[in-house]
Amino acid sequence: MTINAAIPAPDQGPLDRAFARANPRVLDRIEQGLILVLWLALVNRVAHSINGYAPLVLISETAVMAFTLIRRPTQNISLRLGDWLLAIAATAAPLMIQPGLDMFPMIAPLGIALVLLGNVVQALAKLSLRRSFGIAPANRGVKSDGLYRFVRHPMYAGYLAVHIGIMILMPSLLNLVLYTIGWWAQILRLRAEEALLSQDPAYQAFMGKVRYRLVPGVF
Q1: ∠ CA(194), CA(198), CA(203), 5° rounding?
Q2: Where on the phi/psi map is residue 145: left (φ > 0), alpha (ψ -120 to 50), or beta?
Q3: Helix, strand, or coil here: 7?
Q4: Are the C-beta atoms of residues 203 and 142 closer than 8 Å to each other?
């Protein structure tokens, strides 16, 4: 189900009002360009890293970049400046990860397993979404099959497993800070996304069937 109207921003100030007048399709293209630039910078860091596990970072982030570029445009996208800032922070932080040294080789298999599992989960979720994938909160159609039968945001659940695995494989204070910022923004972004989608009766019905957002029994 697609609603052909943008969700306006509340009248809070000049920046919010200016942002609310933006063309959703133009914002889509700007967002795609930003993700591509950050992904290219990550590829460069991975190419120069001495950590043998560094290429694992690219599996997840390359999927984000690819699906962002091929996604279906929509007019029903949030035009709240705060929503976009959260979406950018949640997406940009993992793309800024620095592939450092493998400091805990004894538990590296656990990190590899989490990265692989998380990538499988998010890949299945992305395949369910197909071209409905996006970064900023938007209604590109309600999905309720596949992994969406178990949690409302299986793709984010996959990201969580991947990010924990990456922290095990290349721990550093910088990476911890980046992931902390990213997941703080991710949770707020998730709530903003549901605030938009819940205006769709189909999504309201979906929320009634699937109780948990991210981790069954927890959140």
Answers
A1: 100
A2: beta
A3: strand
A4: yes
Query: Would you give the DSSP letter of residue 199?
Result: T
Q: Which residues contact 80 (CB under 8 A, 6 or more apart)?
A: 7, 9, 10, 16, 19, 20, 192
Q: Which helix (H) or strand (E) holds 55?
A: helix 55-70
For the stretch 38-95, pLDDT in tens is 999 999 999 999 998 999 999 888 887 887 777 665 555 666 777 778 888 888 899 9
Contact (CB, 8 A) for 42 and 93: no
Q: What CA–CA distance (Å, rounded) separates 219 from 215?
A: 5
Domain boundaries, the chain: 14-209
Q: Residue 111 pLDDT > 60, yes or no?
A: yes
**Neighbour-count burial of 218, counting CB atoms closer than 10 A to its CB (0-12 exposed, 13-18 middle, 19+ buried):** exposed
Q: pTM here?
A: 0.79
Instruction: Please give the class, per CATH, of domain 14-209.
Output: mainly alpha
Q: Strand (E) positions, 70-199?
A: none
